[in-house]
Write a structure and sequence with these properties.
about 500 residues; alpha+beta; 7-stranded mixed β-sheet; 5-stranded mixed β-sheet; 19 helices
């Protein structure tokens, strides 16, 4: 029996899983990683914490699975996108990693946009200059920590730092490189035009590969501390979003992923690259060779429902504790008693600003249409509907760009609730399905390992074999018609409210 390991370097922690050659989960180990916020809007982690947790989770997973390490045929890596790891000439970490969710780089993003021009951003890297991307972080270090910048010899991303520690090889693959703002997404190579324009040396970025390419092997010293066999191949792997998509079978045209965690992600497969000329959605390289994807992001999707629970959900939290169930189950039961459209109550889920389609850090959350008739059932349902309307914004842009979508594969909190799956199907006007994969990006990384080491010829073949549909939710035609009307109101609200949002942000800054 052959086994494959998938490792996900996430923001909350490191997950290592082992699957067998039938795609069955054999072991799963997760270890938390601390997050440091030394200043407002900063988010950092210590790469050494990732590495120590990787060692621990691999060792414990092998022990839990009770398998011979020699039967591990390959290892795949996944990781948080954009986060920077800066290394000196001795391959030592120069400073804590600046994470994808760190927003200190607004000034650098404005400088990049003004220096390069939006047209060149479209042509060279297919994406806007946003705080999350890697390039603004490097520029920030150049501006604020020149003594560190001068020592930079390599810049890698989280999973690629782990690859270096495992194999002594520097490498990056196309799906993660696409999120650096330094990569020509359409041609799948580094953009020397972009690097020249912003003054970054070309040799700090490693060679790039496709996600199924083997990029190294476990060294003898790593074998000793992890229990792996020296020489075990390590494939390139992929960014967390692409590995999550592989793990749910988003590998063919017509399929899109709707992931509702703290943030919301809409991920649609493309056989040919499409770039939004207005840069409202991201165009990135998929972990399938020579394929791409469009992605829209709702910054605070499930986080908005969590905010509602924490703010007004004391009753549900207390009752759920006594009943030993999830508080969200009680909340969605209440939401089911409110009608479609929540009797005219519309929620804007912009509690942390918004990325797609508005790219507006000043955007605010809002309940619009509140009346004395509304109670907590309406509040809960309107939040669920507002989040889903915001996800539909990305789907509509993708349709405008020529993508034909017929199926949504739901993951995260929005996939666990029967009611929310139905709301999604009705608002999207498409069938919503769930699949058997529950381990997220780590499972996709293991699939890439299986393909890269010859278990399968193609990623599509592997997902056909290992990823199975569990539930199907069809849209209700009458409900979809009603939601279309409410969605048009939702879309009209942001432009009207934006001037007020900007003024409020200015007042908060002025008086705090």
């Amino acid at each position: 029996m052959r086994y494959f390991i998938g490792i996900d370097v996430g923001t909350s922690g490191i997950k290592s899983i082992i699957i067998d050659e039938h795609g069955e989960l054999i072991a799963r180990v997760f270890k938390d990683i601390p997050l440091y916020t030394p200043h407002p809007n900063w988010a950092e982690q210590d790469p050494q914490d990732w590495w120590q947790a990787t060692i621990t989770t691999i060792r414990e997973a092998i022990s839990s699975a009770d398998i011979d390490a020699a039967s591990v045929a390959g290892i795949g890596l996944s990781g948080q996108m954009h986060s920077s790891v800066m290394l000196d000439e001795n391959n030592e970490v120069l400073r804590p990693s600046i994470l994808w969710c760190d927003t200190r780089t607004s000034e650098q993003c404005r400088w990049i946009t003004e220096t390069v021009g939006e047209e060149n951003l479209v042509n060279w890297v297919s994406n806007p200059a946003l705080e999350g991307f890697t390039a603004p972080k490097i520029i920030w270090v150049r501006d604020h920590e020149p003594e560190i910048y001068d020592k930079i010899n390599h810049v890698v991303l989280p999973k690629d730092y782990i690859r270096y520690k495992m194999t002594d090889e520097y490498a990056m693959e196309v799906s993660d490189a696409a999120g650096t703002l330094l990569f020509d997404v359409q041609r799948r190579q580094w953009s020397h035009e972009m690097m020249d324009a912003i003054g970054l040396p070309k040799d700090v970025m490693p060679a790039v590969f496709e996600s199924i390419d083997i990029c190294g092997a476990i060294t003898k010293s790593v074998a000793e501390v992890t229990g792996l066999k020296a020489g075990t191949p390590v494939v390139a792997g992929g960014a967390d979003n692409t590995c999550g998509a592989v793990g749910t079978g988003i590998v063919r045209p017509g399929r899109a992923l709707a992931s509702l965690g703290t943030s919301g992600v809409v991920f649609a497969h493309m056989d040919e690259v499409h770039v939004d000329p207005d840069l409202r959605v991201h165009s990135f390289c998929h972990s399938i060779p020579h394929k791409w994807y469009l992605m829209g992001v709702v910054l605070f999707a499930g986080g908005s429902l969590q905010w509602l629970r924490n703010t007004v959900g004391e009753i549900e939290v207390s009752a759920a504790h006594m009943m030993d169930i999830d508080p969200y189950e009680l909340m969605t039961r209440q939401a089911s008693r409110a009608p479609i459209g929540s009797e005219g109550l519309v929620f804007l889920p912009y509690l942390m600003g918004e990325r797609t389609p508005h790219k507006d850090a000043n955007a605010k959350g809002a309940f619009i249409g509140l009346s004395a008739r509304h109670d907590r059932t309406h509040l809960i349902r309107s939040v669920m509907e507002g989040i889903t309307f915001a996800m539909r914004d990305s789907i509509e842009i993708m349709r405008d760009l020529g993508l034909s979508l017929s199926e949504i594969r739901a993951t995260g909190g929005g996939a666990r609730s029967d009611l929310w799956r139905q709301i999604q199907a009705d608002i999207y006007g498409m069938e919503v399905v769930t699949v058997n994969a529950e381990e997220g990006p780590a499972f996709g990384a293991a699939i890439l390992a299986a393909v890269g080491t010859g278990m399968f010829n193609q990623v599509e073949e592997a997902t056909d074999e290992w990823v199975k549909i569990v539930t199907r939710t069809e849209p209700d035609a009458k409900a979809s018609e009603q939601y279309d009307e409410y969605y048009q109101v939702f879309r009209d609200l942001y432009p009207v409210l934006k001037p007020g949002f900007d003024r409020l942000s200015g007042l908060v800054k002025k008086h705090t």
